[in-house]
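Deviations from the work plan: none for this task. Representative record:
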Amino acid sequence: MNKKIITGINTVFVTLLVLSILVVFLSPFAFMIFTSLKTREQISVVGAPIWPAAQPKFEYTGQQLDVFTVPVNQCAGFDPASSETRNLAITKKGRQESTFIDPNDLERGEFVCQVSWRALDRPWVFSPTWSNYVEVWNTIDYFRLLSNTTFYAVITMIGTVVSCILVAYGFARFRFPGRDLLFVVLISTLFLPGAVTIIPTYSFWQRLGLVGTWIPLVLPHFFANAYNVFLFRQYFMTLPRELDESAMIDGAGPLRILWSILIPQSYPVIIAVVVFHIVFAWNDYFGPLIYLSTARDKWPISVALSTFNGIYGQQPQLIQAGALMALILPIILFFVAQRFFVQGIVITGVEK
Amino acid sequence: MLEQLSQRLPKLPSFATLRAMQPLSRREMRNGLLFLSPWLFGFLAFTLIPMVATLIFSFLNLSITDGIFSTPKFVGFENYRQLWIDPQAGINPLKWFASKTPSSLLITIKFALIALPVGIFFPLGLALLMNNKYLKGQFIFRSLFYMPYIVPFVASVFLWGGMLNTETGWINRFLLYIGVAKESLPQWANDVNWVYPTYVIMGIWGVGNAMLIMLAGLQGVPTELYDAAKVDGANSWKTFWNITFPMISPVIFYNLTLNIIGLFQYFLVPLVVNNGTGRPGGATMFYNLYLYKTFFTYQNMSYGSTLAWFLFLVILLITILLFWSAKYWVYYAGEARS
C-alpha cells in the first residue's frame, strides 16, 4: 500500500526542492523588474519595500499633503483605548502635536494629535514608475540600437548558415584523402584562444581603415565556424545516402543534391543554427566593443548597455530598465524556439 | 565532439596515394575541397596566418601607431625576456608570493580553481535533479534553468551587480534580515576577498548549456545497466560511481575541457564590473585582461603578441594534459576497451 504514498512524498519533496532552487536562481529577474519600476527616491530611502512603491500624497484645498501612519488613540475625538492606526494627511507639522485630516473621513475636518510628525512612518502603496523605460528609450535611442543589432544579427546569420552548410556538406558527403585530418583541424580551432589571432587581425583592419565599420565584424562569419559545421555535418550524416545516389544517377550535380535533397530534410538543424547564431550576435560584446567603440551610430545594444554604468551609475532603476530592454528579445526568441535549442546543444555535447 | 581528437590523428595523405587516385575519386576530391573552400580560406585568413603573425610580432619591436612602411626591428627573445621578469604578467612561479604586484597568471589560476568546481558540479547536480524520476514538470524546469544562458552578457552582469550591490542588493538585504551584522556584510566586488566569489556568482547563469548536455548524457545511459546493478545489489553511490559516471564521462570531459580553456581566457567580467582597472587591490588583473590592456590601451603590439603566444602555449599544454588524462577516466561506449 505504502508504495504510492512514498512515491507521492518523494515527488512533492523533489519537485519542491527543484522549485526552490529555481526561485533563487531566477530571482535576479524579479530584482530587475522591481528595480526598473521604482523611483529614484524609493531606492535611496532606507527601509523602503522591495517592490515598486511610493509614499502617497493627498490633495486638500489646493495643497499636496504628506500622508503618515498615525495611532488614533493620540488624536482628539478618538477612543484613547483604541489600538487602531490610520493613514492621515498632515496639515500642520509640529514637534509636540500635529494637525491632520482623514482622507477617508473628510467630514470630521482637521484634528490635533499628540504626536511628533518626525517620529511617524509614512505608508507605502504599490506604484510602478513606467516612465523609467521611456527615459531609457529616449536617452539611448533604443530604436537605433535595435536596428543596428538586428542588422548585425541577420547579415552574419545568413553568412554563417550558408557557409557552414556548404562546408558541412563537403565533410559529410565527399570521401577523399586528408578529409578526416582537416576535420580534426576544424574541431581543434574550438580550443584556440582568441588572443592568439586578435592582434594581427585588428591591426590588419586598422591599417585598411576599416575599424569603425561593420566589415571586420561581418566578413569572418562568411567563412564557417567549427561549432555550426559540426552541427550540420552530424545531421547530414544521419540522412540516408540512397536519395543522394538516386539523384546522382538522374544526373544531379552536388549543389543540386544539397539544395533539393539535403536541405529540405534539415529544417530542425537549420532553425537551431539560426537561433543560436541570432542569440550569439545579439549578445556579442567583445567584437563590437573593439571594432565599433569609436562609431557610436553603429553600436549594438550590448555595447551601448555597457556604457550605462558610467552614465547612470547612481540610477539603478534606469540601469535595470535598460538591462530588461536588452534581454527581452532574446528571451522571447528562446521561448518560441526552445525545442530546437535543446536539440542543437545535445548534438554538440553528446555526439562524437 | 571531442572524441575525434582523442583518437589517433588521421594521416596526412602521401603523394603516392594522391597520384594513384582514379579519375572518379579525383573528381570527388575536387568537389569536396570546393565545398570546404570557405572554411579553408577562413582558416588561413583568420586563424593560421594571424597566429603565425602573432608569433613573428613577438620577435619584433612593433607599435600599432607605426606607419605602414616603417621597418620593424628584430629584437630576438627580448620580449620573452621581458615577459619572464614582468611582475604584472607573473609567469615565474618562484616570484608569485614575493612580488608586490599580484601576478596576473596566478590570479587566473586561483580564480579557475574556485570557478571550475562550480562550473562542473552545479550543472551536474542540476542535471541529476532534472533526471530524477520523482521530478514533475521536467521540461519546464529544464527550459527555465537554461533560460538565463540567453541573457546578454552585459545585462546579466548588471542584474547580478544589482543583486550584489552592498547597500540595495537583495543578497545583502537578505543577509541583514537573517541577522548578519551590518559591519560584517560582504562588500562583494569591492573587496579583495569577495571579488572572486562575486564573479563566480555572476557566472552561475551560464550553467544552462552544461546542464543540458549532462542531462542528455544521463538520459543516454541504457536502463539495462541500472537494472543489472539493482540485481547485483549495488547501492546508489556504487551505481553512480560504476555506471552513471563512466557513461557520462565523455560529456563531463567535454565540459571540463571547454571550461578550463574558457577560464584561462577570462577577462570580460572584470573588464565590465571593475572597468578593467584591476580593482580592488589589483586582484582582478587577469592574464587575458592584462593582454587586452597591453594591446588596446598601451598599444604595444609586440609585447601583447608575446603575452598571447605564451597564453596559447599554456592552453595547448593544458589541453594535451587533459586529453592524455582522458585515456584513464573517459569512457567512450562503443570503443573496445583493452
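Residues 239 and 245 of chain B are 9 Å apart (CA to CA).
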